[in-house]
Specification:
single chain, alpha+beta, Porin, 9 helices, OSBP_sf, lipid transport
Length: 436
C-alpha cells in the first residue's frame, strides 16, 4: 500500500494547461449580428417580475428587448454543436471510452448557457426549427403551448437523439429558478445501446439589484443500458468566476456503485477524465489551482495521467455585445439563399419579430410579437392548428418523431409567419472571419 501511494505521488502535481480553442464557422455564416445588445442588468428586471408574483412564470410575458433574437427551439438545436463527440463514441469498442465521450457530449450541451441571461422567444404552437449540419439532421416542434412542451429529434448515420423539454420558471427571494425538465435519450444505431440524461436546473441571481449571474444547481446523471453510468455535480463550492458564476464541474463514471473514473473541469471550457484514485490524491491541490486560474483566459489545471475529452470552441470577439452568442448560435437565425423555398412555413427563421430585434428595431419587434400571439389566441379559440405535424405520443406516452419531415411536403402546414426576403437576412458583414 505504501509503495502504491508513493507511485501515485511520484506522478507529479496538477499542471496549468492552456487550452487551444478552435474557431468553427459554418460555411458562409455571419460573424456578428446587425445590432448591439442591451444587457439585462442595464434595466430593472424587478419592475417586470413584480406584477407577476404568484403567477405561473412559464406564462408571463417580458418586453421584447429582454429577449434574445432566437426562439427556444433554436436554443435546443445548440445541443448538436459538439456532435463529433458522439461520432467518436460510436466508433469506440471499449465501453469505458464510449461513456467518457457520451458524458463529454452531455456536458458540452450546457456550455452554450454561459452568461446567457436573456430569455428566448416562446415558440408558437406547431412552430418548428430544422438544422442540417456536419452530418446531423435536427428537428424541433412546439407540441404544446400550455404547458409549453418542445419535442426534439436528431439523427446521423451513427446515432439518434430524441426527447422533450418542458421548462418551468419560478421566483424565490432575489433569484429566478429555472428547471428545463429536459429529458434526452441517445441511441447508437449499430449496437442499440442507449444513454439517457436530464439537463440540470439553474438559478439566476441578483435579479432585483446587482450584477446578474447564473449557476447550475443540480446533478446530471447519464444512465446507460450498458456497463457504466456517469454523474456530474454542479454544486457551488466557491470556485467562483466573477465574470460568470461558478463554472466548476466534477463527476464520476460508475460501475454499479463503484467509482471507476473521475470527470472534472470547467463546464464553459474543458472536460477531462482520470483514474478516480489519482484524482482523490490530487483533488485538494487541483481545486486550489482551479480557483486561482478560473478568471484567466482559456486556462485550467490538469491532473497527471488525464485524458482531455472536450474543449469548447472559440467564442467571438463580440461575445459580450452579441447576447453572449457563440459562433454556432450566430448562424441559427440566418436564411441562406434558397432556404426560404425549402424550410417549413412554421420554421423559426421566418419570425419577423426576431429579425426586427436582431436589427435593433425593438418597437417593430414588439408589434410582430403581439401580432403572432393574437393570431395564436384566435387559433386556440377556433380550435384550428392544434395538432402537431411531426411528433405524436407513442404507447408509452412520450412524444416521438413520426418521420416524413425531410420529404419536404409542407402542404398541410400552417402559415404561421409571412416569408422573409432573402436580401434582408444576409448583410454585408456576413463573411467568414478566421480571426473572431
Amino acid at each position: 500500500m505504501v509503495k502504491l501511494f508513493r507511485e501515485k505521488k511520484d506522478m507529479g502535481s496538477p499542471k496549468i494547461q492552456n487550452f487551444k480553442r478552435q474557431t468553427v464557422l459554418h460555411k458562409g455564416q455571419r460573424t456578428r449580428l446587425p445590432a448591439t445588445y442591451i444587457a439585462p442588468e442595464d434595466v430593472s428586471i424587478w419592475d417586470i417580475i413584480r406584477p407577476n408574483l404568484g403567477k405561473d412564470f412559464s406564462r408571463f410575458t417580458v418586453p421584447v428587448f429582454m429577449n434574445e433574437p432566437l426562439s427556444f427551439l433554436q436554443r435546443l438545436s445548440e445541443n448538436v454543436q459538439y456532435n463529433y463527440l458522439l461520432e467518436k463514441a460510436a466508433k469506440c469498442s471499449d465501453d469505458m471510452e464510449r461513456i467518457e465521450y457520451v458524458a463529454a457530449f452531455a456536458l458540452a450541451t450546457v456550455s452554450a448557457n454561459h452568461k446567457r441571461l436573456s430569455k428566448p422567444f416562446n415558440p408558437l404552437l406547431l412552430e418548428t426549427f430544422e438544422l442540417e449540419r456536419n452530418g446531423v439532421r435536427f428537428l424541433a416542434e412546439q407540441v404544446s403551448h400550455h404547458p409549453p412542451i418542445s419535442a426534439v429529434y436528431a439523427e446521423s448515420d451513427e446515432f439518434t437523439v430524441e426527447g422533450t423539454v418542458e421548462p418551468t420558471l419560478g421566483f424565490w427571494m432575489t433569484k429566478l429558478l429555472a428547471n428545463p425538465h429536459a429529458h434526452l435519450k441517445l441511441t447508437f444505431k449499430k449496437t442499440g445501446e442507449t444513454y439517457s440524461w436530464s439537463a440540470p436546473k439553474c438559478a439566476i441571481y441578483n435579479v432585483i439589484m446587482g450584477k446578474m449571474y447564473m449557476n447550475f444547481t443540480s446533478h446530471m446523471k447519464i444512465e446507460s443500458s450498458g456497463t457504466y453510468d456517469a454523474v456530474f455535480s454542479f454544486d457551488n463550492k466557491g470556485y467562483y468566476n466573477h465574470k460568470g458564476g461558478d463554472v466548476h464541474v466534477e463527476g464520476h463514471i460508475f460501475e454499479g456503485k463503484n467509482k471507476i473514473k473521475a470527470l472534472y473541469g470547467n463546464w464553459t471550457l474543458f472536460l477531462a477524465s482520470c483514474d478516480n484514485e489519482d484524482f482523490k490524491h490530487h483533488r485538494k491541490e487541483y481545486l486550489r489551482m482551479f480557483n486561482e486560474t478560473v478568471s484567466e483566459k482559456d486556462q485550467g489545471p490538469v491532473v497527471p495521467g488525464s485524458k482531455i475529452l472536450w474543449v469548447s470552441n472559440q467564442i467571438p470577439k463580440l461575445f459580450d455585445d452579441q447576447f453572449h452568442f457563440t459562433n454556432f448560435t450566430l448562424s441559427l437565425n440566418e436564411m441562406y439563399p434558397g432556404m426560404s423555398d425549402t424550410v417549413a412555413p412554421t420554421d423559426s427563421r421566418r419570425r419577423k419579430d426576431m429579425k426586427a430585434l436582431e436589427d435593433g428595431k425593438n418597437d417593430e419587434a414588439e408589434e410582430f410579437k403581439h401580432k403572432y400571439e393574437e393570431e395564436q389566441r384566435e387559433r386556440r379559440t377556433t380550435k384550428t392548428g392544434d395538432v402537431p405535424m411531426w411528433f405524436a405520443k407513442n404507447d408509452e406516452g412520450h412524444w416521438a418523431y413520426k418521420g416524413g419531415y425531410w420529404d419536404r411536403d409542407y402542404s398541410n402546414c400552417l402559415e404561421l409567419f409571412e416569408s422573409l426576403e432573402n436580401s434582408s437576412t444576409n448583410s454585408s458583414n456576413s463573411s467568414i472571419s478566421s480571426v473572431d
